[in-house]
Design brief:
The protein is α/β, with parallel strands linked by helices. Strand 7 (about 210-215), helix 10 and strand 8 form a beta-alpha-beta unit. The protein has helices spanning about 20-30, 50-55, 80-85, 100-105, 110-120, 135, 140-150, 180-200, 200-205, 220-225, 240-250, and strands spanning about 5-10, 40-45, 60-65, 90-95, 125-130, 165-170, 210-215, 230-235.
């Protein structure tokens, strides 16, 4: 099978004004200019999207939004449509992040509707799934991931695999300094890929990139990326400093993938 191209995405969450975001890009681009064998994505807050898009112009680094609504337009105060995001220069959209689920009532059903709308707009969704600490302790990790996958993506298993990205983010590892071990990450990623093969096709599953998210740092990126089913990282706090994020991007070396890469 052809290797899946690594993808490293920086999710800035509610950080950086437009000026601060543009300054980051000016410092960051020279640090990664020679890394052409992986995809790099920056996801600023909505107000900074156009400033970052302008700063990224002419570079290979892509722009992402941190959320989207499922309607094209209408009376939805405070929401932003995929069409607006595409016009602002976005190529990717993060959907279903655990913070959206925890603080803003995101459900698998709203994720499903958003994924369909983002795909219809020609953008690439980065769909987040992951279990809470108490769910892992109760042995429910796989059942939680299975439900989030089936319900959140049930309209998308026939999509072009290259236009869908998953991000496994164990909630207990987000912003806590705790990171899943490489073996734990691989176990979850292999489960997700096997379920994608069952819900779609083996070829579909083999083409979907699955990122790891949860206290990713320069020091643990290479080990995580050494796993056959870990295709990149969704990075939070460590993406806020240009030098730190550049080190993570540099550590995400492309590597061989086993067969169809669906074996645990």
């Amino acid at each position: 099978m052809e290797k899946r191209r690594p993808l490293i995405a920086g999710n800035w969450k509610m950080h950086k004004t437009s000026a601060e975001a543009a300054d980051f890009v000016r410092r960051f681009l020279p640090l990664v200019s020679g890394l052409r064998d992986r995809d790099i994505v920056l996801a600023p807050a909505f107000p900074a999207l156009e400033a970052v898009a302008a700063a990224l112009a002419g570079s290979a680094v892509a722009l992402a939004a941190q959320d989207a609504f499922w309607e094209t337009e209408g009376a939805f105060t405070g929401e932003v449509s995929p069409r607006m995001l595409a016009a602002a220069g976005c190529r990717y959209v993060i959907l279903g992040h655990s913070e959206r689920r925890q603080f803003f009532g995101e459900t698998d059903e709203t994720v499903r509707r958003k994924v369909a709308a983002v795909l219809a707009a020609g953008l690439i969704p980065i769909v987040c799934v992951g279990e809470r600490e108490e769910e892992r302790e109760r042995g429910q990790t796989f059942s939680i991931l299975d439900k989030q996958l089936r319900d959140g993506l049930k309209d998308s298993f026939t999509a072009d695999a290259g236009r869908l990205v998953l991000a496994y983010e164990p909630v207990w590892a987000i912003g806590t300094g705790r990171t899943a071990t490489a073996a734990q990450a691989q176990e979850a990623h292999a489960f997700l890929r096997n379920r994608l093969a069952e819900l779609g096709t083996p070829a579909f599953a083999a083409g979907v990139r699955i990122l790891y998210g949860g206290s990713v740092k320069p020091e643990n990126t290479a080990e995580l990326m050494g796993m056959p089913d870990v295709d990149g990282a969704l990075v939070g706090g460590a993406s806020l400093q240009a030098e730190s994020f550049a080190r993570i991007v540099a550590a995400a070396q492309p590597g061989p993938r086993k067969g169809t890469a669906i074996e645990p």
